[in-house]
Amino acid sequence: MTNYSNYQLAMCKIYYLMIYADGDLTEDEYETGKRILNAEGVFIDNLEIDVLIRFQAMTRQEQIKDCENCLRALDLNEQIKCVAWMYILAESDWIMSKTECAIYDHFLKVLNLSFTDIVVEQSEMNKKGILYKN
Fold first, then answer.
1. Fold of 6-128
2. What is the spatial distance between Cα 120 and Cα 134, in angstroms, rounded to a whole number?
3. CB of 79 within 8 A of CB of 118?
4. 3 state SS of 102
5. Quick check: pTM over 0.85?
6. Interior angle at CA 101, CA 100 and CA 104, nearest 5
7. Where are the alpha helices (DSSP H) in 40-130?
8. Cα–Cα distance for residue pair 131/60, rounded to 1 Å
9. What's the rounded Cα separation, in Å, for the pair 124 and 63?
10. pLDDT, tens digit, for every residue of 55-95?
């Protein structure tokens, strides 16, 4: 089994939280999330992490609190990157649901992150072309 960093585990949990947030998993969300995780060194086709299995069994509120705790353990740059990825993933099906928006806003608030920093990070991510299908 692969050992993942705290950052990578946080990304896995955010991926799961966001793709199921609105109750409608789309192919665009799945594929975008897969590309994001691959760029971060996580390959979901082979993902069998006990921590993630326990996470999936939690209620949404428990998942949000768990993600919050994971994000708090990261440095500021990793937090910004995770929340920027979260936003991109939520919009990958061309619309951000009210639930996805509420989760995103929650993390901005509780982590005291700058919206400007998130937008700058998203711009950098877009320049890398990770989100584009090959």
1. TerB-like (1.10.3680)
2. 24
3. no
4. helix
5. no
6. 85
7. 50-56, 60-72, 76-90, 98-110, 115-128
8. 26
9. 28
10. 888 888 999 999 999 999 999 999 999 998 888 877 776 67
